[in-house]
Amino acid sequence: MARAIWNGAISFGLVSIPVKLYSAVSRQNVRFNQIDSVSNTRVKQQRINAHGDVVPYENIVKGYEITKDNYVIVSADDLDAIAPKASRMIDISDFVEEDQIDPVFYDSAYYLVPDELARKSYVLLTRALTDASRVAVASFVMRSKQYLVAIRPIDGVLMMSTMVYADEVVPAADIPTLDELAETEILDAELAMANQLIDSLASDFDPSKYEDTYRQEVLEMLEAKAAGEVRQLEHHADESDAAVVDLLAALEASVEAAKKNRTVETDSKAQSA
Hints:
The chain is of the alpha+beta class. It has five helices and nine strands. The protein folds into two domains: 6-27 and 83-168, Ku70, Chain: A, Domain 2 (Beta Barrel), CATH 2.40.290; 185-272, no CATH class.
């Protein structure tokens, strides 16, 4: 059963809508512990200073490096004095068109769920955002941290995504050689074939068709090892070993393969219908 991680209210103008915050994503990672291969026991992590001594937790303070090995020490009181003021409000400041927000700004996603007495105002905001094709940009504080967020209607409910700030996005111009791409020459025939390949693979997005096959293989391997079985792993050829082929020929072959796969998928769906 999902549990709310924050309680507060959406605020815009004179309107306040009490809501609860639920995580919209549950990461399915395979977590490993560090084990001593000799004693087969857990390895504990310790805080060691430059002299090799173990540092008690109560002796550890925060430091910000301003020059090499030169730190400004910051206390908890220093940070508390400038911490964002605790608030239970998600303050909407703007309503913008969704396509104006580059996906690179989105971070973690959450569901906003209304209190029972706030359902009407919640549904009203949801439908108004849908009709206007707008996204609410807001800010709020959770666990002493201030967040920039986007609130958008998804299938009749409000989803809130935390966002990175503008100065946290790395401009493409800062990446070496990317500015040279505009000088790359592309033949008309190559572009036409590439467009044909895109058309042959065009479809509606169905997230359920994509699976983390590596995670599944890891889990199957762990189950087998726990049961005392030995699995023979397949060798995957290194892509760097592949022969260099003509770009246009590769595109043509890809188009043909895509057409055949699409035909197989269509026949399979027809038989199962």
